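User: Could you check the structure of this?
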Amino acid sequence: MDVANRLVDSTNPAKAGDVVVVYCTGLGATNPAVRSGEAAPASPLAKVVTPVTVTIGGQPAVVQFAGLTPGFVGLYQVNAQIPAGVTPSAAVSLVLSQDGVPSNTVTLGVR
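Assistant: Sure, the predicted structure tokens are below.
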């Protein structure tokens, strides 16, 4: 995850309103479709077909983008905004969900 291209952790926390970028795999089909083994295009962006939701600190976050990372093969990114009211901590939970299936929980620092 990054804010201004920095790893977000307990020593470099994000704050409410910041947008974090979560890199992941396995989010499925995109529009436009990208063939297996090909790098994702920068224009148009290859967005996931099945919507992704994000919770941060148990609160819903605004997802600004969910799709393949331009220039990479099979790497997805989800850009989510840290919601106001998240309790600051060195280990705030973040969970992606797609089609009702939650990801493993990861943590990030929030000030």
